[in-house]
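ARCHIVE CARD
CATEGORY: sequence design from structure
SOURCE FIELD: tokenized fold
FIELD CONTENT:
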């Protein structure tokens, strides 16, 4: 039976630096054969980057981030035989992680009875203060956005999803996605303008 390592990331997932030349194919094949040591190594090697992606979506909720990380790696380890060895393995993992995050977001939207129908605003919001902020400061502002706006913004900006793809992922219409993106930009601009003189 496949055992997935469980971690508690109250601080952060430890980062493991690659040593020498690393061939992920060898590690993947060992994981598929059921090697627990290889599964742990795969988790240790790729969990920090996955956790960084998850943190952008969960607004500092460590227990939810841990849950999503562990669910993501359960999927990774149980679906390794579906990896085609084409393209970057990190990208394959990232796709699973983002889809797992989206499963949680959709579930929360359904539980909250989220059916808000909105009209798009035709507004492109640019902010001159963005370049003055560090990545960490900008990430904190993004994490403070309401859940749906934060998710749409992350998918559009960081994952390069189209409005159509976001609409399908979140079960919204494309106009709603555009509105949420514009609302996220508007909120970010206000926050940035309040931070910068």
């Amino acid at each position: 039976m496949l055992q997935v390592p469980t971690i508690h990331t109250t601080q952060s997932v430890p980062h493991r630096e690659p040593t020498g030349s690393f061939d992920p194919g060898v590690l993947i094949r060992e994981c598929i054969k059921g090697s627990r040591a290889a599964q742990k190594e795969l988790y240790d090697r790729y969990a920090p980057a996955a956790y960084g992606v998850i943190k952008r979506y969960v607004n500092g909720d460590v227990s939810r981030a841990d849950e999503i990380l562990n669910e993501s790696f359960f999927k990774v380890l149980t679906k390794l035989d579906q990896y085609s060895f084409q393209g970057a393995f990190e990208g394959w993992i990232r796709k699973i992680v983002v889809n797992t995050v989206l499963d949680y977001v959709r579930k929360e939207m359904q539980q909250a009875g989220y059916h808000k129908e909105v009209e798009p605003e035709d507004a492109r919001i640019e902010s001159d203060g963005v370049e003055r902020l560090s990545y960490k400061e900008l990430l904190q502002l993004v994490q403070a956005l309401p859940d749906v706006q934060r998710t749409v913004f992350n998918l559009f900006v960081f994952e390069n999803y189209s409005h159509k793809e976001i609409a399908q992922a979140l079960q919204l219409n494309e106009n709603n996605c555009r509105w949420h993106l514009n609302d996220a930009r508007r909120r970010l601009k206000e926050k940035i303008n309040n931070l910068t003189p």
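CARD ANNOTATION: The chain has two domains: 24-111, 130-195. Helices lie at 24-32, 36-58, 62-78, 89-111, 135-143, 147-157, 163-170, 174-195.
SHELF: design records, drawer C
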